[in-house]
Amino acid sequence: SGALHYETIPLSEAGLATQTPTSVPTPRLTENPSDEPSLETKSLTTTFENSVSYAGNMFDILARDNIEISSIAFNTFREDYITVRLYTRQGSYQGHDKDISGWILLANVAVKGQGLGNPTFIPEGAFPPVLVRRMNNQAFYITSDGPNLRADKGTSEGKLYTSNSDIRIYEGAGKRYPIDGATFTSRIWNGILEYRVIDIPTASPTTTKPTMRPTPSPTSVSSRLRLYWQQGYYWQESRRESWFCMECRNNCRENDSV
Q1: How far is the C-alpha of 182 from the C-alpha of 173, rounded, in Å?
Q2: Alpha carbon of 187 to those of 139, 156, 168, 175, 213: distances in Å?
């Protein structure tokens, strides 16, 4: 007769392996998440039917959602290298078709022409993405130094030509070079816009007054706030993950705002 005293310990501590390993590994978070989420690249094409040549084209778009335009293609008969300049401005090109000072230069690059009827891209990365907020207009001006860009004749300047759920593209103008040269309307830009739909949070907080619940004694706390990003999230004109250091001042108490 007697008593048996024992304790249970994990097999791993006893130097014994389990007979049957688990079939699914324990999931682990990545130590270094990517700076920017992967967003779907979309596109909208006008037409590659063409009847006229110009040095440049001007056209307006309307964003029906928050978008970033990352690449643009045009139609040229050239199959050698051609230098093109891409400009943009908020609002419309109308009233700004003779003066380059009202435009922002995005790109000044040489690209290899792909021949008539084929898209020739100013590739992604050649210019910073152009943010266009929901229900805002943005104008674009793409030009070379000679009649190298093809277009088609339209019916009415500013008339809607094509659209999808994200963007509307309107009939625009053909341009001689330089910009103070002649303007021809209405013309339909031949090309493709590539873009991504993004989320932009509201600029103002959801409540106007913070909740104040003082504790009996004051506390002094330092902490660090980290924003965890979801796909497509856009905050303060950036999609990069950020850290913020905060310090509570002036004898603040628990639940005070910082």
Answers
A1: 10
A2: 14, 8, 16, 10, 64
pLDDT at 87 over 70: yes
How far is it, in rounded angstroms, from Cα 256 to Cα 213? Answer: 7
Instruction: Identify the band that residue 231 occupies on the pLDDT scale cut at 50, 70 and 90.
Output: low
pLDDT at residue number 116: 98
Question: What are the b/e assignments for 154-172, b being 16+ CB within 10 Å?
Answer: beebbeebeeeebbbbbbb
pLDDT tier at 38, thresholds 50, 70, 90? confident
- Beta pairing, strands 172-175 & 167-170: unpaired
Q: How far apart are CA 190 and CA 32, in angstroms?
A: 42
Instruction: Give the phi and the psi of residue 208 in degrees, each rounded to 5.
Output: -90, -25
Angle at 127 between CA 124 and CA 132, to 5 degrees: 90
Taking the C-alpha atoms of residue 68 and residue 132, their distance in angstroms, rounded to an integer, is 6
Tokens read off for 122? 């100013």
Q: What is the pLDDT of residue 39?
A: 86
